[in-house]
Design goal:
- The protein has about 180 residues and is mostly helical.
- It has one domain.
- About 80% of the residues lie in helices and about 0% in strands.
- It is built from 6 helices and no strands.
- It is globular, with a radius of gyration of 17 Å.
- The protein starts with a helix and ends with a helix.
- Keywords: Membrane, Transmembrane, Transmembrane helix.
Length: about 180
Amino acid sequence: MQTINTRLSPWHIVAVVVLVPLLLTALALWHWKPGVFVLASVLALGGARVAYELFVMKKMGNRAYQLAFGLAIGAVLLLVWMNAAVGGILGDNPANMMYLGVLIVGLAGAIIARLEAKGMSYALFATAFAMLLVPLVAWMIGTPAFANGLAAVFALHACFAWLFAGSALLFRRAAQSRHE
């Protein structure tokens, strides 16, 4: 049986590798106060760890399922964190509420799928599609959120869609390996 210290070591590495560059970026570009950044980091990593332990480690020993769940959680945390940094989901622009819609699609799909691999695959494909719709809808309704250029906004959303689609493909693989 693994001890808690052994199981925590990968999370310590993730914290250092991910948080140090993000801390420097957040403090320089996003004008976050150090205390807010530390709190957001602790909540994000702690929440990811708890979700992973509760839902993945106890549910499945399948490595593809674990990777799929980790990728999905990571994409959600990155999406929420980026939106929090620029005033996104709960910011001044009501169009940013579409990101909340993307998260609701994923959460509703996960609940309907009861975290089973095949259903999670469908849920994550739907989430990827919803992510791709956000800039399209924002562009169609004329929001002024394209300061970095239309191509850059669509490319960023495509990257998030790829993360969700990659997770969906891993869930599909987990479902197939379970039936073999």
